Target: Glucokinase
Amino acid sequence: MKYFVGVELGVKNILVGVVDKYGKLIRKESVPTLKERPYTEIVEDIAKLITEVLDKEDIDIRSVKYIGVGCPGTPDAKNGIIVRNYTLNFHNTPIRAELEKYINLPVYIENDANCAALAESVAGAAEDIDFSVTVRIGTGIGGGIIISNKVYSGFNYAGAELGHMVVSFDGLKCTCGRNGCWESYASATALMNQASEAAAKCPESLINKLVENDYGKLTENIIFEAARKGDITAKEVINKYLFYLSEGLVNIVNILQPEVIVIAGQIAKEGEYFLKPLKEMVNSKVYCQQVRQTGITLAQTGSAAVIIGAAMLGVYKNMALHSNVLI
Model:
């Protein structure tokens, strides 16, 4: 049997997993990234962790076909370089060439959100769907567009930055320098900021009790827990948040008309309580309601999404892995 190795190179941790040909995760391990050190040391740890994972599963390196690396930032997938990543302080960093010094296998590099989208297309909520968009909600909002199992990221591999479409003209300042970006209103970070601000103005809110008046403990799931228990403040926060989230989704539908939009991230664990009102908002605002509507569903690959998607990058290398046209 042939295997595939996926690497998630995160700000806090490096995760490595081995995946079978069906996209099933067999095993994963992690080590701290320690991002302040030189990239060469980080890549050396990736190589060591790959060897460790394979050894623990008694998999011969000769049975591995490809290695894929998913990383935040802007990749040059053709040349195996991370062009820009502020959080890891990467600038034109040759990840592929450095990793191939340790392991003699083809290495593919991709943005982590695109990897997550590919995972959902291959082995998740968008399996057997020809055209899907995955929206990954976390610290920011990442986007991945998949057409016929190919990642669409533009001619320069820097596209699909869905979190940076503007939904509020002259709105909140975004880390990118613009105002009113979608992720400033609809990321998990934005939701927690909105909830903290609202709860601080309402001392009797259940949110305050659940976090013991320490907003550093706040998570999106706590906000939904409070809402489920009838807390008015939490319900108002969620309703406002869903409005902003739906605005971006409507833009995606109106511009791209994908068959399915997959919502990924911790918030996806909230299930129908989160999804049902979101669908209703989106469907009420899309441009043409007389045609079959884009489906909106929740991710299925969970925390393994980037690993699985990265591992499967090489599988589609002969399918023009990056499509630069939408038709």
